[in-house]
Amino acid sequence: MITSAQYSSNTNGNPSVTLPQIETMVTNANHYGRQFAMAFTKGSVTYITDNAWFDLPNAAALFNMFSHTSNVGGLEVYCVNSFWDGDLGKSYRHNPPFIHQRDGIAVVANAPPHALIHEILHACGMEDISDIAPDGTELDNRLVNVVDAGSANWSGGTGTGYYPADLTHRTLVRRLLMYAAGNVNGADFPLGRVRGYGTSSSLNPTDFIPRLVSADFLLIRNPQH
Ligand SMILES: [Zn+2]
Fold first, then answer.
1. Where are the domains of the chain?
2. What pLDDT, on a 0 to 100 scale, did the predictor assign at position 184?
3. Distance from the CA of 66 to the center of ligand 1, in angstroms?
4. 146 CA distance to ligand 1 centroid (A)?
């Protein structure tokens, strides 16, 4: 898969990222991608001077920026300085994934190493998983179990599973690459779906249901914008 990067600067000439940082982002995405046999290469890199695309003030600016380029033969990745709400990465993808002018991925320069792969996996059809529902309901402290973790992710039978016996399901959710809030130590990519809440942009976000965070749903292996 080819990613085409755009990065911005403010009108004072401060770039959101450096070219070596873009190289590192792609290298990190490849480290994670090895778990599910996907590889990424950097395509063209474009540099844009625009204050509104450096510190993004709102969603309208994001869509305006995403519309800058489309049909690049891979994914458009925008590197910015900050988002209005403090997020580390954002993506937009029509569902079903028609290539649409407004589709794109954006990450902030100081995002943790897995931020780009998290957004790329959204472009592959994955959804977020959370331990807190949009209405504030929090996952309880139940221990890891086959029903919530999913049988595809389980081995060994009762009491002999792969997971430490004192691991909570909440900790498991927070270890996943698709964990919505991000976790610098979380890079798990499960074989099967895992139960959790969604986010405000998810389907049925307040339901504690199996989420599309796993290899069994990796149907789009060559995503494009
Ligand atoms: Zn996400």
1. 2-123, 127-225
2. 77
3. 17
4. 24
